[in-house]
Design brief:
This protein is α+β, with helices and mostly antiparallel strands and 277 residues long. It is built from nine helices and nine strands. A hairpin with a 5-residue loop joins strand 6 and strand 7. It is globular, with a radius of gyration of 19 Å.
């Protein structure tokens, strides 16, 4: 029987979402259990090694040769394989969950990651290995864009609407999700209208179809783990930037549904103290 080919991720900059540069740095900055040098990376490497045999077994009908061939690994980032990307993402958030156990802390950490990703979208960024001169590594050195592990976040242009009206928030949400769709994060998305409620609150629903890490998200949500929620966290950062606190309730699409993804119910509340800091 012919083996199926792993689905490819369209844009390397999305690897940033499951690479050391965002989650690893966020874990270090978080401190606490991750303040010990090397602890996060050691734990991640251990879980990845332990989980890889099960990953190979689960996708035994797929051609995994590119993940096992050293020559191909040097030429192309293995994380551009969507299923492998999702596997790594699950390992990372299981690693994070070991050190960030309380739901409230997980929520704050997720918001922190969302803020970082939101800024990258607004400002643009280059991600990947740094150019090294001699034996000294400089984390602020230019990115080696010739590396297959490198990629770019194009800055969002024109800027998002500055206002906090329901129209501005809807337009901003649409543009952020469309940015993620164009960059290969998801297949498609839908947004409902924003409805005005009491005390200036707003409610709406979003649906993100086939996000790049759907398998990891599904596994972690069903096990009541610590799911990534990247698109939701980016939107939360945008809402905070416009003076709104946000609450969300998400669920996986029905197993019988033709469209696979995550549906989220939102409630936005005006909050003068809401900010990205």
């Amino acid at each position: 029987m012919a083996r199926r080919t792993l689905v490819q991720v369209g844009c390397p900059n999305l690897d940033e979402m499951c690479s050391e540069a965002t989650l690893f740095q966020a874990a270090l900055d978080w401190g606490g259990p991750f303040s010990k040098p090397g602890l996060y990376q050691t734990s991640f490497n251990k879980k990845r090694s332990e989980g890889f045999p099960a990953f190979k077994e689960r996708y035994a009908t797929y051609d995994l040769s590119a993940l096992l061939n050293q020559t191909q690994l040097l030429a192309k980032d293995p994380r551009t394989n969507r299923l492998y990307f999702s596997f790594l993402n699950e390992v990372q958030f299981r690693t994070l969950q070991d050190g960030i156990k309380r739901r409230g802390e997980q929520e704050r950490f997720g918001l922190n990651v969302g803020n970082r990703l939101y800024r990258k979208i607004l400002q643009g960024d280059e991600v990947g290995p740094r150019l090294v001169k001699g034996d000294t590594y400089d984390p602020k050195a230019p990115v080696d864009m010739s590396s297959p592990l490198s990629g770019r976040w194009p800055s969002l242009s024109p800027p998002l609407p500055k206002g906090g009206s329901s129209v501005d928030l809807a337009k901003g949400s649409q543009r952020l999700l469309d940015y993620l769709r164009r960059e290969g994060y998801c297949k498609d998305f839908t947004l409902s209208s924003f409805k005005l409620k009491d005390a200036g609150k707003l409610s709406f629903e979003s649906f993100v179809e086939e996000p790049i890490n759907l398998e990891a998200t599904s596994t972690l949500m069903r096990s009541r783990g610590f799911p990534p929620r990247y698109d939701q966290r980016i939107l939360q950062a945008f809402f905070a930037d416009r003076g709104f606190d946000s609450e969300l309730d998400d669920e996986l699409s029905d197993a019988k549904s033709a469209m696979k993804g995550v549906r989220t119910k939102w409630l936005l509340t005006p909050d003068p103290d809401a900010s990205l800091e």
